[in-house]
Design a protein that fits this description.
mainly alpha, 68 residues, 69% helix, 0% strand
Length: 68
């Protein structure tokens, strides 16, 4: 999807945990594997359990491995 890069950029810039969760979910639903690196990077920095949960699901949907 053409929107995936913009959503990925919004994810990196968002300061709101709920919004980050929604953005991560969107990336997982769009299915653009090109955003996997962004999701993994943001997952490592994320402090919100809710947003991390959404990121985990999105990473798995894109075929990635969730870091431990």
């Amino acid at each position: 999807s053409a929107a995936a890069p913009a959503i990925g950029k919004a994810l990196t810039m968002s300061s709101d945990a709920r919004e980050r969760g929604y953005l991560a979910r969107s990336l997982g639903q769009i299915g653009d594997r090109g955003q996997l690196a962004t999701l993994l990077s943001e997952y490592r920095k994320e402090r919100s359990e809710v947003a991390q949960g959404e990121m985990r699901v999105a990473i798995k949907r894109l075929g990635g491995e969730v870091p431990r």
